[in-house]
Design brief:
Blueprint: E1 4-11, E2 15-18, H1 31-41, E3 46-50, H2 51-60, H3 64-69, H4 71-79, E4 82-85, E5 97-100, H5 104-113, E6 119-122, H6 125-133, E7 139-145, E8 152-154, E9 165-172, E10 178-184
Parallel strand pairs: 1-6, 1-7, 3-4, 3-6, 4-5
Antiparallel strand pairs: 2-8, 7-10, 9-10
Helix pairs in contact: 1-4
């Protein structure tokens, strides 16, 4: 069975995006963090996105700027197989990408049962909440940035009930970013 992991940046006060979708506070820049990101990208997970995150990433990673400043990461993420969940998107040019328009929960259940690569949701807060509410997420990898922002959207906004997690590992970076890896605790 495939594993489903979430990877997201979070501010100290629990937001994954600020007002109007601002993520400028989540800066990744030093060599140590870049190496960590590339190692994770090389694991060849199937990447899952909501439309907004997909379009933002598709607007950056294939660009000349990304290819110039971070060619290894750009190559890894550009070649990764992707799924975007969207009722409105008709075309996805950042290949290889599949668009799933309906029945996201059922489609993810099916994907988890099939053989293949593990899956990672990047960004996509409302997708994360929906998948968390149905118990489909196995692990959460959260990069906590040493910044508090005035207002925004909490990572699990709208979660129903309680989500118990067990800490699996941590990674502290010189920049002050700490990545916490949790798995869902099954009582």
């Amino acid at each position: 069975m495939r594993k489903l992991t979430v990877f997201n940046f979070v501010s100290l006060n629990g937001y994954f995006k600020g007002l109007n979708g601002d993520i400028s506070w989540a800066k990744r820049g030093d060599e140590e963090e870049n190496k960590f990101a590339i190692e994770n990208a090389k694991k060849q997970h199937l990447l899952l996105f909501g439309r907004i995150t997909y379009q933002m990433m598709a607007g950056f990673w294939p660009s000349p700027m990304a290819l110039q400043h971070n060619p290894v990461m750009a190559a890894e993420i550009n070649k990764a197989e992707k799924i975007v969940f969207s009722r409105t998107l008709d075309k996805a040019d950042w290949g290889p990408t599949t668009i799933i328009k309906n029945n996201m929960i059922e489609e993810v259940r099916k994907l988890k049962q099939q053989p293949g690569k593990d899956m990672t949701v990047l960004g996509s807060g409302s997708i994360i909440t929906q998948l968390a509410n149905t118990g489909l997420i196995d692990e959460y990898s959260l990069s906590i940035h040493p910044v508090a922002i005035g207002d925004g959207t909490s990572l699990l906004k709208g979660i129903v009930g309680r989500l118990n997690l067990e800490l699996v590992s941590t990674q502290a970076f010189k920049s002050g970013v700490i990545t916490l890896n949790y798995r869902v605790a099954h009582d």
